[in-house]
Amino acid sequence: MASRTDVRFDSGGARCAAYLYRPDADGPAERPAIVMAHGFSATRDERLPAYAERFADAGYVALVFDYRHFGASEGEPRQLLDIGRQHADYRAALAYVRGLDGVDPERVVLWGSSFSGGHVLAVGATDPRVAAVIAQVPYVDSVPTLRKVPLRNLLGITAAGVRDQVGALLGRDAHLIPAVAPPGGFAVMTAPEAEPGFAAIQGPETRWQNGVAARLGLRLPLYRPGRAAARIQAPVLVAVGDEDETTPPEPAAKVAAAAPRGELVRYPVGHFDVYLGEPFERAIADQLEFLGRHVPVAAA
């Protein structure tokens, strides 16, 4: 069994909370490591430990962190989903892991799922030292993704975003909108799979809150991280759910084709299915196989 410790690292003047997993078995003096964070509004406890434990059991060091403003990390206002800050948090996590004893700083992997599946593409394109990238059911392009959001909700999110942005300029607390709601409700995600999917992946220690600062709605339409894939020189594994109702599968598949060393795996599942049960077992097996080829525990 792997060991887990609670650690913290600095990002932008705030402390990010993280779980650090280390293999218990004997192995090389310096091991590869995997830096992991979750998707839209989620925290480190929403099934990410299941992945990290498997990686550590296979001999990898794994760091699972909460972004600033979320979960156990510092940062005010709470629930502020700032894309640029989340990218910076990934970079700070990379720097932290590269400085750890027992980690090979040239063999650190970026791992992301859903919204963070887009983040790792964007960050991986700007850091040539990244050894590999794993993007699971990734959010790669706002244009096709937002087409799945009902028009009434898009208008409501925009109006709430203006209110929140004006309030921020006036020093008011963040105005939150729900991250998830049932079909017909008001939230960023209202696909039939969204609400039960979030409920299914919440861990016993979760600090997840169903809300994000609405100002994100003014910036989200411009976020197209899949366009960075062509600049990633490291191996990239893109895992797509063909029945995904939250992040469209075809744009993600195109990202795998655009990456110079891209690889694509497809599963007949929805967005949240990949975290649980047999789909999880298939996904983690494919990810470990990919890592074993490109970033093996024992360096060549």
Automatic annotation (TrEMBL):
<feature type="domain" description="Xaa-Pro dipeptidyl-peptidase-like">
    <location>
        <begin position="13"/>
        <end position="142"/>
    </location>
</feature>
<dbReference type="InterPro" id="IPR050261">
    <property type="entry name" value="FrsA_esterase"/>
</dbReference>
<dbReference type="Pfam" id="PF02129">
    <property type="entry name" value="Peptidase_S15"/>
</dbReference>
<dbReference type="InterPro" id="IPR029058">
    <property type="entry name" value="AB_hydrolase_fold"/>
</dbReference>
<protein>
    <submittedName>
        <fullName>Alpha/beta fold hydrolase</fullName>
    </submittedName>
</protein>
<dbReference type="GO" id="GO:0016787">
    <property type="term" value="F:hydrolase activity"/>
</dbReference>
<keyword id="KW-0378">Hydrolase</keyword>
<comment type="similarity">
    <text>Belongs to the AB hydrolase superfamily.</text>
</comment>
<dbReference type="InterPro" id="IPR000383">
    <property type="entry name" value="Xaa-Pro-like_dom"/>
</dbReference>
